[in-house]
Task: inverse folding
């Protein structure tokens, strides 16, 4: 449907598009990181593309994509990560960030995709092009730790600032908890042994995030 | 009153293995102690009856169980029939904290604070599996049951629970409140202020000048 868009993009920015494909009616163009802002601005402002709507920015962690039978998802019942990370070959580029763009007036849509290596997790921010990218980029930063260079306020949007790590990465321990207040001291009879609080020798009282200047026994 | 078998804290030990209470505690009964015990039991019954049938609730509604909570409160099931009439939207006026829905880690300090603001005596009901155990949200963001941070008196399972289950949980809680025993000469323990220990007697203790 939007093959004309990809043709247009290849015509005007021949060095920006790495590859392109169509999957079940959705056209995807993989673009270079250096050209992302230029491509986005062109796609928004050119009347042939007119992609004024940024519907979503999403990220994918491919660490276990090809090795796990579950398609990369870890099983919730299994301990810190369900796979032995040291034995698996490193997947590079490990992360993908997808920009789902749409045009209400012209009734077509396009997905831009950028591939990122895990040792250089940086992307140019597109907040200057679509204002809604502000919250989406904070979301991707919150869950995956992708740094958006040029973002005006790159802080966590859903999790609390005391949270350490990025929970949707595949090497984040499945049952790790980072509580804000100490838990009552009792054995976890329901969940059983495991790396979570109350199991495998982790005392319940040691499972909260240590705050620097706040006494954990007072909450006011 | 004994409509349902309540799980005993010591487990299901058969009656024949119970130690008789009289032989384990040295007890010297006088006429005065007897009279006091009779008075205690009558007063406990009266207090328990009053407290069990006038539960003001604080609904801490965070998720979809709230729809079921509305159903329990509304006409067909009508929790008010059982004495839990008023939802109070300040914890300082509430006796029963109903935790209705999933509790996030980010939310848990707020819940703890609400609980701390309630006046004694206070009770807590975990409404639905998310409040009881985290439910199927076994992930980084969800508190695995409200009893991780505050003590819970009664757990109502279900996703969401049927209104009948909530009524049943309320009846069990009322049974617990009714069976609580108040002692005439109990002293409230304040670990940091032992000098207050003799002054802080209960209402009935003051009445009897003990």
Result:
């Amino acid at each position: 449907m939007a093959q004309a868009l990809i043709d247009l993009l290849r015509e005007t920015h021949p060095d920006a598009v790495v590859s392109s494909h169509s999957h079940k009616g959705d056209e995807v163009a993989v673009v270079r990181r250096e050209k992302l802002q230029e491509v986005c601005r062109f796609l928004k402002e050119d009347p042939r593309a007119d992609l004024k709507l940024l519907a979503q920015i999403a990220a994918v962690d491919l660490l276990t994509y090809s090795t796990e039978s579950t398609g990369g998802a870890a099983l919730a019942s299994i301990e810190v990560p369900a796979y032995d990370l040291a034995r698996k070959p490193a997947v590079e580029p490990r992360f993908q960030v997808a920009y789902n763009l749409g045009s209400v007036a012209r009734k077509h849509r396009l997905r831009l995709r950028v591939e990122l290596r895990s040792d250089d997790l940086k992307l140019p921010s597109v907040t200057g092009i679509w204002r809604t990218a502000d919250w989406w980029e904070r979301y991707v930063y919150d869950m995956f730790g992708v740094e958006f260079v040029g973002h005006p306020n790159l802080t966590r949007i859903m999790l609390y600032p005391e949270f350490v790590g990025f929970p949707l990465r595949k090497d984040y321990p499945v049952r790790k908890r980072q509580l804000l207040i100490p838990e009552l001291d009792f054995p976890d009879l329901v969940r059983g042994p495991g790396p979570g609080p109350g199991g495998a020798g982790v005392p319940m009282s040691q499972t909260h995030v240590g705050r620097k200047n706040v006494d954990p026994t007072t909450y006011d | 009153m004994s409509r349902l078998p309540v799980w005993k804290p010591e487990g299901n030990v058969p009656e024949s293995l119970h130690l008789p209470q009289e032989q384990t505690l040295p007890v010297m009964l006088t006429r005065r102690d007897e009279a006091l015990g009779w008075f205690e039991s009558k007063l406990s019954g009266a207090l328990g009856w009053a407290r069990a049938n006038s539960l003001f609730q604080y609904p801490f509604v965070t998720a979809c169980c709230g729809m079921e909570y509305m159903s329990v409160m509304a006409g067909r099931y009508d929790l008010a029939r059982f004495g839990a009439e008023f939802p109070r939207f300040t914890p300082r006026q509430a006796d029963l904290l109903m935790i209705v829905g999933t509790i996030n880690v980010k939310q848990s300090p707020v819940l703890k604070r609400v609980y701390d603001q309630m006046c004694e005596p206070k009770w807590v009901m975990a409404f639905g599996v998310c409040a009881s155990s985290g439910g199927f949200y076994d992930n980084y963001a969800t508190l695995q049951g409200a009893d991780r941070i505050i003590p819970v008196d009664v757990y109502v399972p279900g996703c969401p629970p049927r209104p009948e289950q909530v009524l049943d949980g309320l009846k069990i809680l009322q049974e617990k409140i009714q069976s609580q025993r108040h002692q005439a000469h109990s002293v409230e323990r304040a670990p940091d202020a032992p000098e207050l220990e003799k002054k802080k007697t209960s209402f009935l203790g003051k009445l009897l000048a003990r």
